[in-house]
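Sequence, please.
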């Protein structure tokens, strides 16, 4: 595996691979790699011939009150994992090379980004789309891979790619879960034992919603009320949002029908976790 901080080197290696007829796959990450990332890497390896992974903790997507400084940094372990996975190239840029002191250009999707997590974390998705656009311009992949746990992020990136004509196909991969069904996330590392135990309430609430829909309950408000009860039973939990939306555009819906997004964002202690499921009801 080549590890580089150099934009020049990455462009040279990728264009050489492309000239040799290889399909370039790309998995952007913020490191602290877990099985969720590995499933993206496995999928990317299957679908491409030359795989680039980036590790960059993007300050721009954290607000001043968020966990940028304490975000887990595990570069040595991450490198070993990626080497074992036979990733071709690790791009590990320096912050000052990505955002120089005179940096003043941003990429912003303005519709989907205002909803759900965008409401609770203003500026977050502008930070995500700006860094992902930069990484796309640097790596110039054919395919790029994102997890379904960050469903809204993946939808926004697909929209950015469409609106701005990036010649990149966005692929998504199912959420990977612990035994008790908690979605894998680098932020799970922050949970103490009691918070960790309570956090499984998120998936319990999502499963309750799925079951209610299966039983022909069609009223989102009633389903959300039942989901709330499950999470509120946990003393260390506080709900940011529970929403049931149209899965294609994240608009509000009055009745469950078609492809529906059911999403939860909740704090356990100080740690904000998100999760979702997609349900099809005809
Ligand atoms: O999902 C993430 O880890 C980040 O938001 C991403 C896509 C790597 C951009 O910093």
């Amino acid at each position: 595996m080549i590890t580089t901080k150099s934009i020049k080197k990455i462009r040279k290696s990728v264009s050489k691979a492309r000239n040799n007829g290889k399909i370039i796959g790309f998995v952007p990450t913020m490191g602290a790699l877990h099985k969720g990332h590995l499933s993206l890497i496995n999928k990317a390896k299957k679908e491409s011939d030359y795989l680039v992974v980036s590790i960059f903790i993007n300050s721009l997507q954290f607000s001043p009150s968020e966990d940028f400084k304490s975000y887990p940094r595990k570069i040595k372990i991450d490198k070993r994992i990626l080497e074992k996975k036979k990733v071709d190239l690790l791009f590990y840029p320096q912050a000052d090379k990505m955002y120089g002191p005179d940096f003043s250009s941003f990429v912003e999707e303005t519709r989907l980004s205002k909803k759900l997590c965008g409401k609770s974390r203003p500026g977050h998705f502008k930070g995500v789309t700006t860094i992902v656009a930069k990484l796309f311009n640097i790596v110039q992949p054919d395919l790029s891979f994102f997890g379904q746990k960050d469903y809204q992020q993946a939808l926004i990136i697909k929209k950015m790619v469409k609106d701005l004509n990036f010649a990149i196909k966005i692929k998504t991969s199912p959420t990977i879960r612990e035994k008790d069904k908690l979605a894998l996330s680098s932020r799970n590392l922050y949970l103490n034992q009691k918070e960790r135990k309570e956090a499984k309430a998120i998936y319990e609430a999502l499963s309750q919603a799925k079951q209610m829909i299966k039983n022909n309950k069609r009223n989102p408000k009633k389903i959300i009320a039942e989901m709330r009860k499950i999470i509120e039973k946990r003393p260390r939990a506080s709900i940011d949002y529970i929403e049931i939306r149209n899965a294609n555009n994240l608009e509000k819906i009055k009745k469950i029908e078609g492809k529906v997004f059911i999403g939860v964002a909740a704090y356990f202690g100080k740690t904000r976790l998100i999760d979702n499921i997609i349900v099809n009801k005809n």
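The chain has a mean pLDDT of 98.
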